[in-house]
Amino acid sequence: MDHPPESQDLHLAQTENRHLKETMSALREELEKMRISSETGIQNAMAAANSEIIQLKSTIAALRDELEWTLVQCEEKIQKMEQMTRDEMNQLQQTVKTLREQLEEDEREQK
User: Are 11 and 3 within 8 A, CB to CB?
Assistant: First the structure.
């Protein structure tokens, strides 16, 4: 049974049409997979970036706290040193006063 040439042309066209539709469907599926993969990659990158931002903010806060604590410690040391200096000056002034009084008394006794 031979098919007329128009029937064969129609069959070839239908076959080619079916293959093109299958190819188009496969390309759509592949494109969708690539889109999903791309979105997943973007979401993973965003999650990693957000995690790093949170860690960096935490580190900054810890360093700021440490800096403030160090500043408070330094201020306390400065205040203690200033107080020690004032105390030492008062002691030295008292010593000078006492020595001066002794010297004056010794001079009066010698006269």
Answer: yes
